[in-house]
């Protein structure tokens, strides 16, 4: 099959959507498909990547005449399906949707984010202006939590399927002889990984860790490592200094290999963001055998069940209680870690993801 992916952002930019789309392209090519990408992100030439770039401030990934360029490209490349990737509001990606509709090419659009009330209002306004529900789209979301608000806006006319983000599950398995969830050190090691951006509420994560540590008995020590970088880092450093939380480390951005090494020493992984559409870092931790604590209303709930792969909470206090419980209860921590090591999150593996998108492509073509 000839597949053309359209994404505002792509390599060399590094982010959740960029990395996931690049991995999907690699997996589809490995399965024998002819796969190309068109993006508004500037960068060095890459095989099969078309860059539609305008000279805009801050290298914004959008083009004022993007629809025309994309329609011309689709007419010349003649893909069997166009697969568009969007965040909350992605102008270039939706230009790709419009261009595919004009070119008469079946189109699947994956929404990688959670639609909040403002975003839902925007898409209702766009429906009133352009009637996009009549375009014959097939939409996908990365989790049930992300799909629910999309379905509320799309209505019964537009199918909204759930296709998980993909992960090379086997590459995240702990090495033989290691046992995440049973730290050889005296301190229980709590880990979090993600961009340190205000919308992720990283300072609230520090308050969560602080409150959890206060609930852990004196003989049990607790330390934490928060991997990532972003605009909120300075504020986090000031908070740690003011609260004298020298047991929390902010090492910055890590490579995938460094994260794997870190997870090998982790006892608990925390993903507290309430509007997490999927939670790829949490999936990596779960695949590595680490018990996960996350919001029950986030996309993490698709692959973490309470008491099985980790613990879920709907409120800040419930998350605090979950982290403290795992820190105190070594038997529970070890049983969850053993379950995570012995069972794979099958629906998040690349074969399952490729099969899910293949069904969506056939639905769009039909």
Question: Could you give a short description of this structure?
Answer:
By secondary structure, the chain is α/β, with parallel strands linked by helices.
Structural features, described:
With 366 residues, this protein is of the alpha/beta class. It contains 12 helices and 13 strands. The chain has a 7-stranded parallel beta sheet with strand order 3-2-1-4-5-6-7, sandwiched between helices. A 6-stranded parallel beta sheet has the order 10-9-8-11-12-13, with helices on both faces. Helix 4 links the parallel strand 5 and strand 6. Helix 2 crosses helix 3 (91-103) and helix 6 crosses helix 10. It is elongated and about 70 Å long. The model has no long low-confidence stretch (mean pLDDT 93).
Largest sheet: 7 strands, parallel
Q: What is the strand tally?
A: 13
Q: How much helix, percentage-wise, in residues?
A: 40-55%
Number of helix segments?
A: 12
CATH architecture tag of the largest domain: 3-Layer(aba) Sandwich
Shape: elongated
Amino- and carboxy-terminal Cα gap: 15 Å
Q: Could you list the spans in which at least 5 consecutive residues all have pLDDT below 50?
A: none
The CATH homology group name of the largest domain: Glycogen Phosphorylase B
Task: Provide the domain count.
Answer: 2
Give, in spatial order, the strands making up the sheet with the most strands: 3-2-1-4-5-6-7
In CATH, the topology of the largest domain is named Rossmann fold
Q: Average pLDDT value?
A: 93
Strand % is 15-25%
Radius of gyration, CA atoms, in whole angstroms? 21 Å
Structural classification: alpha/beta
The run of helices and strands is EHEEHEHEHEHEEHEHEHEHEEHHH
By CATH reckoning, the class of the largest domain would read Alpha Beta
